[in-house]
Amino acid sequence: MCEGIVEAVVRRAGDRPVRAVRVRVGGHPVDPDVIEQGVRVAAMGTVAEGADIDLMLEPLRVRCRRCRAETPVNSAMALAACPACGAVDVEVAGHEDVVLESITVDAPVGRNR
């Protein structure tokens, strides 16, 4: 995931240094610190190295097949049982996606801002 984010940033930035990256991660039970560190490591030696990283996390949602409750969860452990009724027949609801929302780049060298 982190390498894919950096590849997309580098494609968009071309040869311009990247100041900031905004990424939306939805439907994945992830630790934001781990994602941020992974992006920093993947960006080493690229135009994205040292960029500020703004992660927008959307919670994972599960739907219970027994009680029909759809609930946001903060832990992969909630995938084992419904937070509402305790049933073990749950499925992931919503979309799992990673979206590069925006990047901020410096002006190309030799151009006025």
Automatic annotation (TrEMBL):
TM spans (from-to): none
Name of the protein in question: Hydrogenase maturation nickel metallochaperone HypA
Domain of life: Bacteria
GO biological process: protein maturation
Keywords: Metal-binding, Nickel, Zinc
Example of a GO MF term: nickel cation binding
Native species: Actinomadura bangladeshensis
